[in-house]
Design a protein that fits this description.
Layout (H helix, E strand, L loop, with lengths): L9 E9 L3 H12 L4 E4 L23 H12 L4 E4 L2 E9 L2 E8 L13 H5 L3 E3 L8 E3 L1 E2 L11 E2 L10 H6 L12 E12 L3 E3 L16 E3 H7 L21 E8 L14 H15 L4 E6 L9 H9 L3 E5 L1 E7 L6 E6 L6 E6 L1 E6 L1 E3 H4 L22 E3 L9 H19 L5
Parallel strand pairs: 1-2, 1-10, 2-3, 10-21, 12-19, 13-14, 13-19, 14-15
Antiparallel strand pairs: 4-5, 5-10, 6-7, 8-9, 11-20, 16-17, 17-18
Helix pairs in contact: 1-2, 1-9
The chain binds flavin-adenine dinucleotide.
Length: 427
């Protein structure tokens, strides 16, 4: 078995960690490496969360595989961790030190005999939209979720499992790994503490109707930009204008797209300025002549990130404009975009024409739309407002918007809080 799956219908552990992003992975590892038993559950078919969906990550500009691979190796070597993907919490009862949880494990339709040889996908005639790339390309209905997927095993999109044509995949698998009739399982978990690390989702840019996302093809969001720049993205890493596939000669970044705005997200997501300056580098490396315009209210690059900002300021092709973009419209016939911005100091209005625009949309905690199925205090934005007497401990981007290194620090703290809470103590 390539992964420490949950066997049977009951399991007990010191910590149940919900969410297999960098926060949940780190907490489960830190607790298990000091001898505690951790069960790590993830609702998608693989671990890695949003970090695995980025092209490079700031400030060091390394590929996400750098950090993730080391963590996956640590998991494989650790008998104290049990990992269960495609798994969600159905109910929680009990109190710190003594919780009982019901988990639902959704079928993968591919068992542990899978060697990821790809023979099934080669014969698969059924296609699906690839959610990893925001539906901008397709995969076969049986697919490997990512080249760094953990578990390294194929999965079938449940929407297509009953399609008669999927039987060809079963015939092509010489290992007997495909089970089209696999059913969901229910598992009971007894645990001392629960770490809630379900992360964030991007703010829905279609709600910001003045900025043209969903209306004009050359307006994309920052999370889509990560995929456009990734080699396993819909354009195989080539940054192109969606409308005509040409390299953009000018790009506008719209900071605080919906953020710090009472009509959308009133708070600052803390990382969007850095994400845009990082993405400006993606464009600079591929298209050295492209002019980049960053429209900002104020640039937030606290602490050691200031260098990153200064380097961007020194770049002759990156132009910073103090201005909140009030409206994006499309020019007739060219697909070009006109960004109308108001200088937040002088009130002066400007109009800048670019070939492509990237909206720096903010992060929304998943707890806003899917809170834990138990009484946990949330603040007005949906972030967990930690109650010190609770054995349910928020961790990572369900607590506040955080970059990866701060998420890891938070996760280490959550592991310690969980270990204490598991004994029925207070944190
Ligand atoms: C455009 C953009 C670029 C960024 N680039 C960088 C960068 O370069 N450098 C950097 O340091 N930071 C960057 N970040 C921030 C980074 O993405 C976060 O710090 C990181 O994702 C936080 O990890 P997390 O584990 O808290 O959440 P997530 O990555 O969201 O992981 C949460 C996991 O929980 C799972 N989950 C959700 N709900 C459930 C449920 N109910 N049950 C079970 N599992 C569930 C999810 O599927 C996911 O796997 C960027 C953010 C944005 C918006």
């Amino acid at each position: 078995m390539d992964v420490q799956d949950i066997k049977g219908d009951q399991v007990s552990c010191d910590l149940l960690v919900v969410g297999g992003g960098i926060a949940g992975i780190t907490t489960a590892l830190e607790a298990s490496e000091v001898g505690r038993k951790a069960v790590l559950i993830e609702k998608t078919p693989m671990l890695g969360g949003r970090v695995l969906r980025t092209n490079l990550y700031f400030p060091k500009m390394c590929p996400p595989g750098c950090g993730i691979e080391i963590n996956l190796k640590r998991i494989r070597q650790n008998e104290n961790i049990t990992v269960s993907t495609l798994t969600e919490v159905e109910s929680i009862s009990g109190s710190p030190g003594n919780y009982e949880i019901t988990l639902k494990i959704n079928p993968r339709f591919v068992n542990e005999k899978c060697t990821a040889c790809d023979e099934c996908a080669k014969v698969c005639e059924v296609m699906r939209k690839n959610e990893l790339n925001f539906g901008l390309d397709e995969t076969t209905a049986i697919y490997l979720p990512h080249k760094l997927a953990f578990p390294y095993r194929y999965v079938i999109d449940p929407e297509y499992v009953d399609d008669e044509r999927m039987k060809k995949c079963v015939e092509a698998c010489e290992y007997g790994a495909i089970e089209l009739d696999m059913q969901p399982r229910t598992v009971k978990v007894k645990t001392g503490a629960i770490i809630w690390a379900t992360g964030w989702e991007p703010y829905d840019a279609t709600k910001i109707d003045n900025l043209g996302f969903g209306q004009y093809p050359n307006v994309v969001t920052n999370v889509i930009m990560e995929r456009l720049a990734s080699v396993d993205g819909p354009t195989h890493g080539e940054i192109k204008r969606p409308s005509d596939g040409n390299a953009p000669k000018s790009v506008g970044f719209v900071q605080c797209a919906g953020s710090r705005d009472e009509n959308h997200l009133p708070y600052c997501s803390a990382i969007c300025c850095m994400a845009s300056m990082k993405q400006a580098q993606y464009i600079r490396r591929q298209h050295p002549d492209t002019e980049i315009h960053i429209f900002y209210i104020d640039v937030r690059s606290p602490g050691r990130w200031e260098d990153f900002y200064m380097n961007a300021q020194e770049d002759e092709k990156i132009h910073f404009h103090r201005g909140k973009v009030a409206r994006i419209t499309e020019e007739d016939g060219t697909g070009n975009l006109v960004l109308e911005a108001e200088n937040t100091l002088t009130g002066e209005m400007t109009r800048t024409t670019v070939e492509m625009a990237i909206l720096a949309t903010g992060m929304v905690p998943t707890t806003k739309s899917s809170p834990p199925p138990v009484d946990v205090r949330l603040d007005e934005f949906g972030y967990i407002d930690q109650d010190d007497d609770s054995g349910i401990i928020g961790c990572g981007n369900v607590m506040r918007p955080l970059e990866v290194s701060a998420t890891i620090q938070d996760a280490t703290g959550a592991a310690l809080k969980g270990i204490i809470a598991a004994k029925g103590g207070t944190k």
